[in-house]
Amino acid sequence: MKTVTLEHEYAAPAKVVWALATDLDVLKEIMKGVVTFEGLPSGRVHQGQNITVQVSLFGKLPPQPYFMEVLECDDNAMILRSFEKGAGVKAWCHTLTVEPQPSGSRLRDVIEIDAGWMSWAFALWAGFLYRKRHEPRVRMLADMQAKQAATDLIGSNLR
Prior knowledge:
34% of the residues lie in helices and 40% in strands. It has 4 helices and 7 strands, in the order E-H-H-E-E-E-E-E-E-H-H. It is globular and about 60 Å long. The termini are far apart. 18% of the residues are buried. Pfam families: Polyketide_cyc2. This is SRPBCC family protein. InterPro entries: Polyketide_cyclase/dehydratase, START-like_dom_sf.
């Protein structure tokens, strides 16, 4: 068993980051070019949800079955816990939390991985995968803030 922990800071309110981090359409978008998903549902993750997909690394490797059970998804506490398995992994237990910070928010991913003797390799992959999500989220949040600022400006000009 290997554990990987990553933290990323965002200059956006915690509730906004939480909504982005728990949206499956956003996941599909930010993972483009790294992981492709066949059969991924649309919309927000919810507690009790079971998701079975086919994943392909870099869109080049043959699709592999992958399963995710959402054990907890609490919008108030901003915590998501899932149990996942497949594509060579016996257990991938992911806990995602978002916390308010003075400068915006902090997103923390803790991933506990059991892939037998290959756990070390999957831990390296997890570190790469979750770090890779940061920059696309930063861009999406900046785009959202720019659109909101433009909407606010138009609204104030109409008054």
